[in-house]
Design goal:
It is a single chain. The protein is of the alpha/beta class. It has 10 helices and 8 strands. It starts with a helix and ends with a helix. About 12% of the residues have low confidence.
């Protein structure tokens, strides 16, 4: 990818950030379901950086740009973002700040941290909210500036979800939900999630490893948007 094209795209996104009052923009690699391999429609991070690796997070500030990726891609990323103005943040290397430390450093007091909550994992969104609180800042989970300039974006996947036959799943959906409800009643347990400086409740057990699902697995599958929907119901 031509570095000048990447610079131009970053410049356009910064103008959108300025227009919308967003100080820091986080772009993750992923789709609406936290799939391990996302389709080409969800290639915003690739589009804005030129980096084609399967894992990475891009952070854009008013005067800075950084790509976070792990050791599998250090050589590739360094080559693909050369001369773009993007700094490579080598995840796991001693002395290199992690994503949240970096965002906390460049997020101004009373600023705004933006990201697309449909693709950001729930735990990641909670951490971003916590670092925003430290700066008396706010989060915008509906911010998708790249979509505005990604004019030749690949088509949205049109595949359909389907139910597995009970011979594979073991029990019906209704039976599984009823078992979860029974466990919840027995344990009388809930978890609290801090959101917009208020304590909200998600009715899932953290005190017991349910025989159907585990809270850790659920939260890694949820996106920020999923979590907000749950909090409203």
């Amino acid at each position: 990818m031509n570095s000048e094209i990447i610079k131009e795209r970053i410049s356009k996104v910064r103008k959108i950030m300025e227009r919308e009052g967003v100080d820091v923009y986080v772009v993750v690699t992923g789709d609406y379901h936290q799939s391990e391999y996302a389709g080409e429609y969800f290639s915003e991070r690739k589009f804005i950086t030129g980096f084609t690796g399967s894992a990475g997070t891009f952070v854009l500030g008013k005067d800075s740009a950084a790509l976070f990726t792990d050791g599998r891609y250090f050589v590739q990323a360094e080559k693909q973002i050369e001369n773009t103005g993007i700094c490579l943040m080598r995840v796991g290397v001693e002395g290199v700040k992690n994503l949240y430390e970096y965002c906390g450093d460049i997020l101004p007091q009373n600023g705004v941290l933006g990201f697309d909550g449909r693709t950001v994992g729930a735990w990641q969104g909670i951490k971003m909210s916590e670092l925003a609180d430290i700066k008396n800042a706010s989060c915008r989970s509906d911010f998708d500036a790249i979509d505005e300039i990604f004019t030749d974006r690949p088509a949205f996947p049109d595949s359909r979800a389907f139910y597995l036959d009970e011979k594979y799943s073991g029990r019906s959906i209704e039976e599984k939900l009823e078992l979860v409800r029974m466990e919840m009643k027995l344990l009388h347990s809930i978890i609290s999630i801090k959101h917009q400086k208020k304590e909200n409740v998600v009715l899932l057990s953290t005190l017991h490893m349910l025989n159907i699902v585990q809270i850790r697995d659920i939260m890694h599958m949820l996106t920020v948007q999923d979590m907000l929907i749950m909090l409203k119901t």
